[in-house]
From TrEMBL:
Organism of provenance: Pseudooceanicola algae
Family that this chain belongs to: Belongs to the D-isomer specific 2-hydroxyacid dehydrogenase family.
The UniProt record lists the keyword Cytoplasm: no
GO CC entries: cytosol
Pfam families in UniProt: 2-Hacid_dh (PF00389), 2-Hacid_dh_C (PF02826)
Residues in coiled coil: none
Protein name (database record): 2-ketogluconate reductase
């Protein structure tokens, strides 16, 4: 039986993904690629990575005949697409798999921050309930939700929240004729109209600090921000100041500019819910991701 082809791992991969790849090839961890003999590295034509790790140039330099990179996730902001094109490397992402779980997380965070569920749980666990009323929180039904970005994820968020009795409006560069919700061409106006601002745009230079101090002021003291896209989309200094001074009412964040070490000032803010970039991390997603990455890698290492 011939040796299985090597598949380079450009970053950490879940065990389920490595197990799937092990059926079609030999996964080589990123910290072992340099130690391979030149001929073995030259034979590698497929690499697997994630939207978080991207494709570091120093690893690509070690793989002169790489033709395909398969990425776990939807984001492309960590990739130098011009460099990949120059090297003749095609990028295949698995963004279609993350959409449903990420939309579900956005909905969950919206409800959690509105009803203050994390602190409500602590109120009961601490024994405080017997001596203190928890207070009133925000009703979700009937509110207006501004969706920033109506791609695959934004569309699902709008659908689910519309079904829960909210009124979606959305902002995108161009209106989508097929969208059943109102399009707002001006982001600041969207924030003014919204009770919730849900961010679902790609990361990268084009969206860096898209949500800044003027947008947060427009959202106002009754408004909530939910971000399940990329931490770079939000000006975190402006957001922290807005949360500290009640410019907005609260925020629920699954992504941060610095991961896994977010700005420590967030931890001191009681009007936030913070989660560790887990929007797409479900048991169902893990098995689906392993199967899809294995399929995409097999197209390269097992042609025909």
């Amino acid at each position: 039986m011939p040796d299985l082809p090597d598949i380079a791992l450009l970053g950490y991969m879940m065990d389920s993904v490595c197990d799937g790849l092990g059926q079609i090839g030999t996964p080589v961890p990123h910290d072992r690629i340099a130690a391979l003999p030149d001929a073995r590295r030259a034979a590698i034509t497929c690499a697997v990575t994630s939207a978080v790790h991207g494709a570091p140039a120093e690893l690509l330099d070690l793989l002169p005949n790489l033709r395909r990179v398969v990425s776990a996730g939807a984001g492309r902001d960590r990739y130098d697409m011009a460099d990949l094109e120059r090297r003749g490397i095609a990028l295949f992402d698995t963004g279609g798999l993350v959409s449903s779980d990420t939309a579900e997380m956005a909905v969950g965070l919206l409800y959690a921050v509105s009803r203050d569920l994390v602190r409500a749980d602590a109120h009961v666990r601490s024994g405080t309930w017997a001596g203190a009323h928890f207070g009133h929180r925000t009703r979700v039904t009937g509110k207006t939700v501004g969706i920033v970005g109506l791609g695959r994820i934004g569309w699902l968020i709008a659908e689910r929240l519309a079904g829960a009795g909210l009124k979606p409006i959305y902002h995108s560069r161009t209106p989508l004729p097929e969208a059943p919700w109102p399009h707002e061409p001006d982001l600041e106006t969207l924030a003014q109209r919204a009770d919730y601002l849900v961010v679902a745009v790609p990361g990268g230079a084009a969206t860096r600090h898209l949500i800044d101090a003027p947008i947060l002021r427009a959202l106002g003291p009754a408004g909530f921000l939910i971000n399940v896209s990329r931490g770079s989309v939000v000006d975190e200094d402006a957001l922290i100041e807005a949360l500290q001074s009640d410019v907005i009412r609260g925020a629920a964040l699954d992504v941060f500019q610095s991961e896994p070490g977010p700005d420590p000032r967030f931890a001191a803010l009681p009007n936030t819910i913070l989660t560790p970039h887990i929007s797409a991390i479900t048991e169902d997603f893990a098995s689906e991701l392993a199967a899809e990455i294995t399929r995409l890698a097999a197209e390269e290492v097992q042609p025909g």
